[in-house]
């Protein structure tokens, strides 16, 4: 039996940390990892959507993971997303992640070409084979990847004993139940949409990985604690508060991650740099009121609920 306790909890999707010149910043990566560690999160999900992985080179992603591991190794669960949209580079990152000592690697399906399921399975199994002593987590995010984790593809992947879980970012909460039912007792399913954390946990998610956890970790940690105690009624208003903030952040002209980084800068005095183009930076005029309003809402919600 696999021990999945390391996956049970709140796992922020780690933001890409850049220096002023837009290059990867190891120093800021470590400051951010230390901050999350001190907040008490279960782990971090590195190099995913929030990590802006598709805008980074293989070398940059390696450097970022190495810097993070200096802080996180042995102290929190590290899941490294290694997909690169071609098998060779993904395998290189998978092998590197295993060498760094991560708890698991994860991968989206190949994007752009809509490949048949046998090709997607081959891609994932090749990546997994490059990290033979490491758990493999399937990242199901059909609205961005363009390919969904169907049950037939899921069953094919379950033949690989290293497949330990699904990070489920599809919108139907029912998908979590389907993967839980067929994945078995020692199989971890992570809730993906932050707006549905309470629902995802209620239907059986073991843990949760989210792009907005970093900007208001206290709220999600509280939701997780309450839900695990069966106190869903108490968790619901916190979810509503978080959702209102997410909607506001997402309605800015700047990209969600740019806005989040700006809020973190103001709330915690931690500078994670900007986002990479083509993601839009914060619009200093148009976004200002919403940024201040979201910041205020976060402060109030944290004071009220945590
Ligand atoms: C479609 C999407 O980006 N989903 C996000 C959510 O956390 C999302 O940002 C959040 O629910 C706000 O909409 C995550 O599932 C992505 C994620 O965790 C990651 O890899 O960074």
Task: Spell out the key features of this protein.
306 residues, alpha/beta, binds the ligand CC(=O)N[C@@H]([C@@H](O)[C@H](O)[C@H](O)CO)[C@@H](O)CC(=O)C(=O)O, lyase, N-acetylneuraminate lyase activity, N-acetylneuraminate lyase, DapA-like, Aldolase_TIM
Any chance you could write out the topology, listing elements then pairs?
Layout: E1 10-12, H1 26-39, E2 43-46, H2 58-72, E3 77-81, H3 87-100, E4 104-107, H4 117-129, E5 135-140, H5 142-145, H6 151-158, E6 163-168, H7 174-183, E7 188-191, H8 197-202, E8 207-210, H9 217-228, H10 232-250, H11 256-268, H12 288-305
Parallel strand pairs: 1-8, 2-3, 3-4, 4-5, 5-6, 6-7, 7-8
Helix pairs in contact: 1-2, 2-3, 3-4, 6-7, 9-10, 10-12, 11-12
Describe, in plain words, how this protein is organized in 3D.
The protein is α/β, with parallel strands linked by helices and 306 residues long. 48% of the residues lie in helices and 12% in strands. It has twelve helices and eight strands. The ligand CC(=O)N[C@@H]([C@@H](O)[C@H](O)[C@H](O)CO)[C@@H](O)CC(=O)C(=O)O is lined by residues 13, 45, 48-50, 141, 144, 169, 192-195, 209-212, 246.
Shape: globular
In what order do the strands lie side by side in the largest sheet? 1-8-7-6-5-4-3-2
What name goes with the CATH superfamily of the domain at 5-216? Aldolase class I
Number of strands: 8
Associated small molecules = ligand SI3
Which ranges are low-confidence, i.e. pLDDT below 50, for 5 or more consecutive residues? none
The helix tally amounts to 12
Q: Please write the string of helix (H) and strand (E) elements.
A: EHEHEHEHEHHEHEHEHHHH
Largest sheet: 8 strands, parallel
CATH class annotation of the domain at 5-216: Alpha Beta
* CATH architectural type of the domain at 5-216: Alpha-Beta Barrel
First-residue to last-residue Cα separation: 35 Å
Radius of gyration: 18 Å
The CATH topology label of the domain at 5-216 is TIM Barrel
Work out the strand percent.
5-15%
Briefly note the structural class of the backbone.
alpha/beta
Helix content: 40-55%
Rounded mean pLDDT score: 97
Binding site for pyruvate: 209
InterPro entries: Aldolase_TIM (IPR013785), DapA-like (IPR002220)
GO molecular function, one term: N-acetylneuraminate lyase activity
Pfam families: DHDPS (PF00701)
């Amino acid at each position: 039996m696999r021990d999945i306790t390391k996956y049970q909890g709140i796992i922020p999707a780690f933001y890409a940390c850049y220096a002023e010149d837009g290059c990867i910043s190891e120093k800021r990566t470590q400051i951010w990892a230390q901050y999350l560690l001190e907040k008490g999160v279960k782990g971090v999900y590195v190099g995913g959507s929030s990590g802006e992985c598709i805008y980074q080179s293989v070398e940059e992603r390696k450097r970022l993971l190495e810097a993070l591991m200096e802080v996180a190794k042995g102290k929190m669960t590290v899941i490294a997303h290694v997909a690169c949209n071609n098998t060779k580079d993904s395998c290189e990152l998978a092998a590197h992640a295993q060498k760094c000592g991560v708890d698991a690697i994860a991968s989206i399906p190949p994007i752009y070409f809509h490949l048949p399921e046998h090709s997607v399975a081959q891609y994932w199994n090749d990546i997994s084979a490059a990290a033979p002593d490491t758990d493999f987590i399937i990242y199901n995010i059909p609205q961005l990847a363009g390919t969904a984790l169907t049950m037939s593809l899921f069953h094919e992947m379950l033949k690989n004993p290293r497949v330990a879980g699904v990070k489920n970012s599809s919108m139907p909460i029912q998908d979590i139940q389907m993967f839980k039912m067929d994945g078995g007792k020692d199989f971890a399913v992570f809730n993906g949409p932050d707006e549905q954390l309470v629902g995802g946990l209620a239907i059986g998610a073991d843990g949760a990985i989210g792009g907005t956890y970093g900007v208001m970790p206290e709220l999600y940690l509280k939701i997780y604690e309450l839900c695990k105690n069966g106190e869903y009624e108490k968790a619901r208003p916190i979810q509503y508060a978080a959702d209102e903030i997410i909607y506001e952040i997402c309605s800015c002209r700047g990209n969600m991650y740019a806005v989040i980084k700006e809020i973190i800068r103001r709330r915690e005095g931690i500078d994670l740099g900007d986002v990479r183009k083509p993601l839009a930076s914060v619009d200093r005029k148009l976004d200002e009121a919403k940024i201040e309003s979201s910041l205020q809402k976060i402060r109030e919600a944290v004071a009220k609920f945590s």
